[in-house]
Write a structure and sequence with these properties.
single chain; Rossmann fold; 7-stranded parallel sheet; 10 helices; about 50% helix; binds NADP nicotinamide-adenine-dinucleotide phosphate
Length: about 270
């Protein structure tokens, strides 16, 4: 099948998985609009790849009120946009055995980054992607969740809950678009990574203290599974250990979901 999208918005493209996916997409011929908060990293990305292959957009996706206007500006500047990748994320510890240490502002930030912004961005970009679909053109919405959406890890309880919420949301968005004749050209893809060696862990003090800042598979190993999945047009891309350990975990839930979809009005 091959990677078919020509203009990709990569949200969370100053580090880790976002940069790796974006660079592979550039190699495959896509123009990438890289999004993140750290301007110096965005500038370096632009310098590395050049303005004919890349544009950069400094934006904080937790500014939820600003998302709609910002997205309209992106579509105006890049009308050929045909793929939106929602990849930004943060992870923080959250231990209810130490309730006094639970920082509700940080919990809210994690929810806004990993979940609420995904809803706002999806709602903001879908009209454009649906318009492509109505013209018979393909478009894609890609969301990066986590294996921790399927089985939670207690140390980062809220992170896992945001990812479980995102995972459930993606199932529903996909079913809703599929049931809508005018939206059927919009493919909804979920990438489900295991622990990967990125700043996600390096930025957490307790992980550094425990010597776990470098936990997980390498980014190259991640891409070895991720890229063929994206090229094949797979709707759910379970990476490495997640596929091996949890590949069939949701078979029963999938059947129950299919029954819901076929019997209950959208
Ligand atoms: N690494 C893992 O073990 C792992 C496992 C499963 C799932 N995931 C998921 O994979 C995705 C990518 O993670 P990663 O490992 O590549 O993490 P990372 O290296 O820490 O990169 C996170 C990216 O998200 C961006 N970001 C964070 N908050 C943002 C905000 N408010 N506005 C705009 N951009 C923001 C960061 O850019 P700025 O800081 O410049 O804004 C950065 O580009 C995340 O959704 C993560 O939850 C990662």
């Amino acid at each position: 099948m091959g990677w078919e999208y020509k203009t990709v918005l990569m949200v969370g493209c100053t580090a880790g998985l976002g940069v790796a996916m974006a660079e592979r997409m550039i190699e495959a011929g896509s123009f990438v609009i890289a999004v993140g908060r750290r301007k110096e990293r965005l500038d370096a990305f632009l310098e590395k790849h050049g303005g004919d292959k890349v544009a950069v957009e400094q934006f904080d996706i937790t500014d939820i009120e600003a998302v709609k206007g910002w997205a309209e500006g992106i579509v105006k500047a890049h009308p050929r946009l045909d793929c939106v990748v929602l990849n930004a994320g943060i992870q923080r510890p959250c231990n209810f055995a130490r309730p006094e240490a639970i920082d509700v502002d940080l919990v809210r930030k994690e929810i806004d980054t990993n979940y609420t912004s995904y809803i706002a961005l999806t709602a903001a970009f879908l009209p454009h992607l649906q318009a492509l679909s109505r013209k018979g053109r393909g478009a894609a919405l890609v969301a990066v969740s986590s294996g921790l959406a399927l089985v939670p890890l207690p140390r980062c309880a809220n992170y896992c809950a945001t990812k479980a919420a995102l995972h459930a949301l993606v199932w529903s968005i996909r079913a809703q678009l599929r049931a809508d004749e005018k939206s059927q050209g919009v493919k909804v893809i979920e990438v489900v990574p295991p622990a990967v060696q990125t700043e996600l862990h390096e930025l957490q003090e307790d992980m550094r203290a425990a010597g776990l800042a470098n936990i997980g598979i390498t980014i190259e190993e991640f891409m070895k599974d991720c890229w063929p999945g994206l090229e094949n047009g797979d709707e759910e891309i379970l990476i490495g250990p997640i596929r091996e350990n949890f590949g069939t975990l949701e078979d029963g839930r999938r059947k129950a979901f299919a029954r819901f979809v076929s019997t209950v009005p959208k």
